[in-house]
Design brief:
The chain contains 13 helices and nine strands. It is α/β, with parallel strands linked by helices. A seven-stranded mixed β-sheet has the order 5-4-3-6-7-9-8. A two-stranded antiparallel sheet has the order 1-2. The longest helix is centred in the middle third of the chain and has 14 residues, at about 95-105.
């Protein structure tokens, strides 16, 4: 069977075939076809992988609802290709939006910067920042060892100026006597009732829920920012689209009440918080 015949058959087997998905899986399996140009040149060539494995992976996506990033073990985040391990949270578009907002602020600061990507998962936030803010070093921290190993793989893959630490998001900073110019955090912020079967099946539960209070991580950093931030700083959070009011009430009672701003995502939902004293 050649490559063109394989694609044609896949569209017959899976009537809801999406080209992006089908070709992403093909590119992940093939050694000679890695992009559309390769496909055009090799359309009549014999496939160099197992047809059965190809259809098994398509079945994982279309029938089992497995995320594409976990099928091909790869994602693109802020235009950077990163490795994704089984069980590690795959980056979401909302996190990209937050990253770009942070990058646009940090890139204007013409000095060396030290930062942290807390609850780092794949290390995607740190990689995005270091790719664009060349004067930044970022520490990645996650309690999940699988996530830290994934982050280390992406540090090696990209060569960015990043360090990785396995441990509690806050205690690790204190134990290492660190203070940062910026922190970006996409923490577990879902309640138990918001978890669905797909999340539990393919990604680590603690990436979504790791406390009785969904805003525990946000509040912990807000309460203790003087211990972990330099005098001039930026703190950026992602949060759930129903949590703005509670977060704002909490901030109004803190001494950060005059230096925060909430942002909506592309779907016009409140999803991002940036606190800064620069």
């Amino acid at each position: 069977m050649n490559f063109l015949e394989l694609i044609t058959e896949s569209k017959k087997v899976f009537s809801d075939t999406v080209d992006m998905v089908t070709f992403s899986i093909l590119y992940s399996l093939s050694k000679i076809v890695k992009n559309k140009n390769d496909f055009v040149k090799n359309a009549q060539s014999e496939i160099d992988f197992s047809k059965e494995e190809f259809f098994d992976l398509l079945n994982d996506y279309y029938k089992e609802n497995k995320p594409l990033d976990h099928i091909i073990h790869q994602t693109k985040f802020c235009n950077i290709v990163l490795h994704v391990r089984d069980g590690v949270l795959t980056p979401r578009p909302e996190t990209e939006e937050l990253c770009y907002k942070v990058i646009n602020i940090l890139i204007k600061l013409k000095k060396p910067l030290s930062g942290a990507d807390l609850c780092c998962g794949t290390g995607c936030i740190a990689c995005a920042i270091c790719a664009n803010v060349l004067h930044a070093h970022v520490d990645c921290i996650d309690i999940d060892n699988n996530a830290i190993e994934n982050t280390k793989e992406n540090i090696e893959l990209t060569g960015f100026n990043i360090s990785a630490y396995q441990g509690d998001f806050y205690n690790t900073i204190i134990e290492n006597n660190k203070k940062y110019d910026f922190i970006v955090c996409n923490p577990p912020y879902l309640s138990e009732t918001e978890l669905d079967k797909r999340m539990m099946q393919y990604e680590s539960k603690i990436a979504f829920n790791n406390s009785n209070d969904p805003l525990y991580f946000h509040k912990k950093i807000i309460d203790n920012y003087k211990l972990i931030m330099n005098d001039k700083f930026l703190i950026a959070f992602e949060f759930g689209n129903t949590q703005k009011d509670e977060l704002e009430e909490y901030l109004k009672k803190s001494d950060l009440k005059d230096c925060y701003e909430f942002y909506k995502d592309i779907n016009n939902k409140d999803r991002m918080l940036i606190i800064k004293k620069l």
